[in-house]
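Below: protein 1.
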Amino acid sequence: MVVLRNPRPHGVEGSSETPYLIKRIAAVAGQPVPPDVPGRTVPEGQVVVLGDNPAQSLDSRHLGPIPLTHVIARVYRRMTR
Protein backbone atom coordinates (compact mmCIF):
# COMPACT_ATOMS: atom_id res chain seq x y z
CA MET A 1 0.00 0.00 0.00
CA VAL A 2 1.18 3.49 -0.83
CA VAL A 3 0.06 7.07 -0.34
CA LEU A 4 0.12 9.07 -3.55
CA ARG A 5 -0.82 12.53 -4.73
CA ASN A 6 -4.18 12.54 -6.46
CA PRO A 7 -3.28 12.77 -10.17
CA ARG A 8 -6.55 14.60 -10.87
CA PRO A 9 -6.64 17.97 -9.12
CA HIS A 10 -9.78 18.96 -7.22
CA GLY A 11 -12.36 20.38 -9.59
CA VAL A 12 -11.35 18.24 -12.58
CA GLU A 13 -14.14 15.94 -13.78
CA GLY A 14 -13.84 12.53 -12.12
CA SER A 15 -11.55 13.84 -9.39
CA SER A 16 -11.77 13.07 -5.72
CA GLU A 17 -11.88 15.92 -3.22
CA THR A 18 -8.93 14.51 -1.32
CA PRO A 19 -5.42 15.53 -2.40
CA TYR A 20 -4.10 12.06 -1.47
CA LEU A 21 -5.06 8.48 -2.32
CA ILE A 22 -4.15 5.19 -0.62
CA LYS A 23 -3.82 2.30 -3.08
CA ARG A 24 -2.14 -1.06 -3.60
CA ILE A 25 0.67 -1.32 -6.14
CA ALA A 26 -0.43 -3.98 -8.63
CA ALA A 27 2.49 -3.76 -11.08
CA VAL A 28 5.79 -1.90 -11.50
CA ALA A 29 7.87 -0.86 -14.51
CA GLY A 30 8.34 -3.66 -17.03
CA GLN A 31 5.58 -5.87 -15.65
CA PRO A 32 2.35 -6.62 -17.54
CA VAL A 33 -0.60 -4.49 -16.48
CA PRO A 34 -3.69 -6.15 -14.95
CA PRO A 35 -6.53 -6.87 -17.42
CA ASP A 36 -8.70 -3.87 -16.41
CA VAL A 37 -5.88 -1.34 -16.93
CA PRO A 38 -5.08 0.26 -20.31
CA GLY A 39 -1.79 -0.76 -21.94
CA ARG A 40 0.32 -3.90 -22.04
CA THR A 41 3.31 -3.24 -19.79
CA VAL A 42 4.03 -0.62 -17.15
CA PRO A 43 6.35 2.08 -18.53
CA GLU A 44 9.66 2.93 -16.84
CA GLY A 45 9.22 5.28 -13.87
CA GLN A 46 5.55 4.41 -13.37
CA VAL A 47 3.40 2.03 -11.33
CA VAL A 48 -0.10 0.60 -11.60
CA VAL A 49 -2.22 1.16 -8.49
CA LEU A 50 -5.57 -0.41 -7.64
CA GLY A 51 -8.10 0.31 -4.91
CA ASP A 52 -9.92 -2.31 -2.87
CA ASN A 53 -13.37 -1.20 -4.11
CA PRO A 54 -13.30 -1.43 -7.94
CA ALA A 55 -16.77 0.11 -8.35
CA GLN A 56 -15.81 3.34 -6.58
CA SER A 57 -12.02 3.53 -6.71
CA LEU A 58 -10.14 6.23 -8.62
CA ASP A 59 -7.12 4.18 -9.68
CA SER A 60 -5.13 2.93 -12.70
CA ARG A 61 -8.25 1.38 -14.23
CA HIS A 62 -9.32 4.98 -14.94
CA LEU A 63 -6.01 6.86 -14.84
CA GLY A 64 -3.58 4.39 -16.42
CA PRO A 65 -0.07 4.00 -14.96
CA ILE A 66 0.89 6.60 -12.33
CA PRO A 67 4.31 8.35 -12.29
CA LEU A 68 6.49 7.30 -9.36
CA THR A 69 6.85 11.01 -8.53
CA HIS A 70 3.22 10.90 -7.30
CA VAL A 71 4.07 8.23 -4.69
CA ILE A 72 4.67 9.95 -1.35
CA ALA A 73 4.98 7.14 1.19
CA ARG A 74 4.59 3.45 1.83
CA VAL A 75 1.86 2.37 4.25
CA TYR A 76 3.13 -0.03 6.90
CA ARG A 77 0.09 -0.46 9.12
CA ARG A 78 -3.43 0.79 9.56
CA MET A 79 -3.87 3.60 12.08
CA THR A 80 -6.94 3.61 14.33
CA ARG A 81 -8.37 6.42 16.41
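Below: protein 2.
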Amino acid sequence: MKISVNNDMLSARTSFATLTVYAAVELLEQNSVCIKLKTARSRNLASAQFCTTRYSI
Protein backbone atom coordinates (compact mmCIF):
# COMPACT_ATOMS: atom_id res chain seq x y z
CA MET A 1 0.00 0.00 0.00
CA LYS A 2 2.74 2.44 0.89
CA ILE A 3 4.50 1.92 -2.43
CA SER A 4 1.35 2.57 -4.45
CA VAL A 5 0.56 5.69 -2.41
CA ASN A 6 4.09 6.96 -2.97
CA ASN A 7 3.79 6.27 -6.69
CA ASP A 8 0.48 8.14 -6.81
CA MET A 9 2.03 11.07 -4.99
CA LEU A 10 5.01 11.03 -7.34
CA SER A 11 2.80 10.98 -10.43
CA ALA A 12 0.68 13.78 -8.96
CA ARG A 13 3.79 15.85 -8.35
CA THR A 14 5.05 15.13 -11.86
CA SER A 15 1.76 16.10 -13.48
CA PHE A 16 1.60 19.24 -11.33
CA ALA A 17 5.13 20.16 -12.39
CA THR A 18 4.17 19.57 -16.02
CA LEU A 19 1.10 21.78 -15.65
CA THR A 20 3.26 24.44 -14.00
CA VAL A 21 5.69 24.31 -16.92
CA TYR A 22 2.85 24.55 -19.44
CA ALA A 23 1.35 27.50 -17.56
CA ALA A 24 4.74 29.22 -17.46
CA VAL A 25 5.23 28.68 -21.20
CA GLU A 26 1.75 30.01 -21.91
CA LEU A 27 2.47 33.07 -19.78
CA LEU A 28 5.76 33.56 -21.61
CA GLU A 29 4.00 33.43 -24.97
CA GLN A 30 1.40 35.96 -23.83
CA ASN A 31 4.14 38.04 -22.25
CA SER A 32 6.53 38.04 -25.24
CA VAL A 33 6.01 41.75 -25.88
CA CYS A 34 6.82 42.47 -22.26
CA ILE A 35 9.92 40.28 -22.43
CA LYS A 36 11.08 42.12 -25.55
CA LEU A 37 10.53 45.37 -23.68
CA LYS A 38 12.62 44.02 -20.80
CA THR A 39 15.47 43.03 -23.09
CA ALA A 40 15.32 46.27 -25.05
CA ARG A 41 15.25 48.38 -21.89
CA SER A 42 17.29 46.23 -19.55
CA ARG A 43 18.47 49.31 -17.65
CA ASN A 44 14.92 50.24 -16.72
CA LEU A 45 14.42 48.07 -13.63
CA ALA A 46 10.99 49.48 -12.89
CA SER A 47 9.48 48.21 -16.14
CA ALA A 48 11.22 44.84 -15.68
CA GLN A 49 9.78 44.43 -12.19
CA PHE A 50 6.38 45.51 -13.47
CA CYS A 51 6.49 42.86 -16.17
CA THR A 52 7.47 40.07 -13.78
CA THR A 53 5.03 40.97 -11.01
CA ARG A 54 2.08 41.72 -13.27
CA TYR A 55 1.96 38.28 -14.88
CA SER A 56 3.15 36.20 -11.94
CA ILE A 57 0.85 33.39 -10.84
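Helices lie at 2-30, 32-40, 45-54.
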